[in-house]
Design brief:
The protein is an alpha+beta fold and 709 residues long. It has 27 helices and 20 strands. Helix 3 runs antiparallel to helix 4 and helix 9 runs parallel beside helix 11. The N terminus is likely disordered.
Length: 709
């Protein structure tokens, strides 16, 4: 039975020691008390906003962990968890007094107060990253943090309203999903209620009062069902404990949001738990309750055979009970019930016994994914974004061709599956066979499907894949590849631009003296030439300035013989073609530099390019190469008479001319005519002229032209 401690009254160290006596040895309790004396001295004179001595907070955090029967090192770290962050005590000082295991947990929970951040969001993201990485080394770090958050939420009423809502929002977005991911439902449920009460106080009050009124009307009915179930199981010789579950305000509110209905429109689903001793008894109980009441089709889930992503195990079934009201039954063993309530925290009660392995293994798998995401993530904000994606795992279970189960969040696509198998498979996937049927990468996966990934060595990730990926692992894999590709392409483009500027000044790269190049790099603050080329390719540095410093270190007024840079069309991610004017081979063009993104090629007559030149922005004269590859988008405006089927007629002519339509829009100008706008792909101006000619001869076409700017 869990140890009952008051969630509100200040926790005294004597009460904590008495609670610890239930499962800790006297020597271990003395160590916890030693940590208390150290923390009390360190926090001497500090008070909370409520006015009580600060030491009551860490003692209360330890009390929450005592309810989970955490080991004495974890309790010591809980009592000391604010010492590094809020007092003059350093990590080095703490190491002289306590075991490294305790000190590392305290450091993992402590915020990065000594660093300066540009914003609150960046500070939150970096502290979150630090905590999650500490958690990968020791899971108890997150248990201390959850207990700390729970006590802070219990005492939130003394905070200003704006801060109350911010803390509640953070709890809803981060800490509740983490508790759910680790299966710690007893903490999760209380955090949900407290966060809802703080963030939406009026809604919480209304939902809670309505539930209480309805509970009074239904209590007798729930007691009757509990008795009927118990009697039926006893008649079948099955020893079981049957409990009716109380509805919570937060889960009711979320169900109303999900179903987009009012409280009065919710169909009451009465929930009961049946707890037994053995796994095989769970299935015998399932048969007994199905014989008692008719099961509802499609409402049975076996989480014992296939546990949830957080290790949760139970049988779920919904029955049609008396008076036609649905009854949800959850059937589990005592060990499964403890894991369902305490999740990974139950692992410390078993200390390596088999019962604790399901949740521990699920948590270990998640932590391995976290480490992989962290190693391939550029900054803390991106890391937080990717972890948030994985914190909402409404699971889908799919199979590899060899029968291995892969867990993915609902809405996951073929791309997510490919990266879940291996990053190399994800980087080279082109399609999949889903249940033996060919499927594109954007296909969303459903429970029970068998997925085989089709790869091609020449295939690589595209930026558009980020819109298809649901999991943090897939998004990180795609971003990592694209960043590496971007750096490679930036260096290549920067090299071309630098060589182009040198040639304009009458010099070839091989003619530049090494000493002069080294002096230029030193003056601009670069280690080597590739670093400079990368910055030039990304638009962060002027190629013209670098070239002048190479050629004329003491005199930069020399005449530059301009020669346009050639554009081939297949340079990669760092040469973009403006959507506003849609330049195609054969058009007069100009390139605008965009910091961090490379070059944006415009039609010379585009109003946007004229504006850039007029404002003196970085721009470069460019021209089309004689060998141009690929297709280029452009926009046509077609005015047609109002006649049924004209859109289809014009689209067919465009398709027959060998052009692919990317987008089409229609607007009615007056009662007699309409205007169609087509965004299509063409090879060059000659191809575009052929398309225009074929559209122009259509009898109902009044006017056709190209849109530039």
């Amino acid at each position: 039975m869990p140890i009952q401690l008051s969630p509100v009254a200040p926790m005294r160290i004597s009460d904590l020691c008495q609670a610890m006596e239930v499962y800790l040895s006297p020597a271990e309790i003395r160590e916890v008390y030693r940590a208390y004396l150290f923390a009390a001295e360190a926090h001497e004179g500090q008070t909370r906003l409520s006015g009580e001595a600060y030491i009551y907070h860490p003692v209360a955090v330890a009390a929450i962990l005592v309810q989970m029967r955490m080991d004495h090192h974890c309790l010591m770290a809980a009592i000391l968890h604010d010492v590094i962050e809020d007092t003059a005590i350093t990590k080095a000082t703490l190491k002289q007094v306590f075991a490294d295991e305790v000190v590392e947990m305290v450091d993992g929970v402590s915020k990065l107060t000594h660093l300066k951040f540009r914003s609150r969001a960046e500070a939150q993201a970096e502290n979150f990253r630090k905590m999650m990485l500490a958690m990968t080394q020791d899971m108890r770090v997150i248990l201390i943090k959850l207990a700390d958050r729970l006590h802070n939420m219990r005492t939130l009423e003394v905070m200003p309203p704006a801060k109350t809502r911010r803390i509640a929002r953070e709890t809803l977005d981060i800490y509740i999903p983490i508790a759910n991911r680790l299966g710690i439902n007893n903490i999760r449920h209380e955090l949900e209620e407290l966060a809802m009460a703080a963030h939406w106080p009026r809604r919480y009050q209304v939902v809670r009062e309505t539930l209480q009124r309805r509970r009074g009307n239904r209590r007798e009915w729930i007691d009757d069902i509990t008795r009927i179930l118990s009697e039926r199981l006893a008649k079948d010789g099955l020893s079981a404990e049957v409990r009716g579950r109380e509805k919570r305000a937060y889960s009711t509110y979320k169900k109303m949001q999900l179903k987009k209905c009012r409280f009065s429109e919710l169909v009451d689903v009465y929930a009961f738990r049946v707890i037994v001793d053995q796994v095989d008894t769970c299935y015998r109980v399932l048969g007994a309750v199905h014989n008692l009441y008719r099961p509802m089709p499609g409402k049975f889930k076996d989480y014992i055979a296939i546990p949830k992503a957080n290790g949760y195990q139970s049988l779920h079934t919904v029955l049609m009970g008396p008076q036609g009201l649905p009854i949800e039954i959850q059937i589990r063993t005592h060990a499964m019930h403890l894991l369902a309530e305490q999740g990974i925290a139950a692992h410390w009660q078993y200390k390596g016994e088999r019962q604790g392995s399901a949740t521990a293994d699920a948590a270990a798998k998640w932590l391995r994914n976290l480490l992989e995401v962290q190693q391939n993530t550029g900054d803390s904000m991106e890391f937080l974004e990717n972890v948030k994606v994985d914190l909402y795992p409404d699971e889908v279970y799919v199979f590899t061709p060899l029968g291995q189960i892969v867990e993915l969040p609902r809405g996951a696509t073929v791309i997510d599956f490919a990266y879940a198998i291996h990053s190399n498979i994800g980087n080279h996937c082109v399609a999949a066979r889903v249940d033996q049927q060919l499927a594109p990468l954007r296909s969303q996966l459903r429970n029970g499907q068998t997925v085989e990934i089709i790869t091609k060595q020449t295939a690589t990730p595209k930026p558009g894949w980020l819109d298809l990926a649901m999991t943090g692992r897939a998004r990180t894999g795609i971003r990592t590849y694209l960043k590496h590709l971007e750096v490679t392409e930036a260096v290549a483009l920067g090299q071309r631009l630098l060589e182009h500027e040198l040639s304009c000044l009458g010099m070839q790269p091989a003619q530049v003296e090494p000493a002069r190049q080294a002096a230029m790099l030193h003056e601009l603050g670069y280690v080597d030439i590739s670093e400079l080329q990368q910055d030039i390719g990304l638009g962060n540095r002027s190629a013209a300035l670098a070239a002048r410093l190479m050629v004329f270190p003491n005199d930069q007024t020399q005449t530059r013989v301009a020669a346009p840079l050639s554009i081939q069309g297949g340079e990669g991610m760092l040469i973009h073609f403006a959507r506003c004017c849609g330049p195609v081979p054969g058009d007069p063009i100009i390139a605008i530099f965009s910091r961090g993104r490379g070059m944006l090629v415009h039609h010379q007559h585009c109003p946007n390019s004229s504006d850039f030149r007029r404002r003196g922005k970085d721009w470069l004269e460019v021209q089309w190469d004689q060998q141009v590859s690929g297709e280029f988008h452009t926009t046509l405006r077609v005015d047609v008479g109002n006649q049924r089927g004209m859109l289809a007629t014009v689209a067919a002519v465009i398709a027959d001319s060998g052009s692919n339509i990317e987008d089409v829009r229609s607007e009615e100008r007056d009662g007699l005519s309409s205007r169609l706008r087509f965004t299509l792909m063409v090879r060059d101006r000659k191809h575009l002229a052929d398309v225009l000619r074929q559209i122009r001869v259509l009898p109902q076409v009044l006017k056709v032209g190209r849109v530039i700017g």
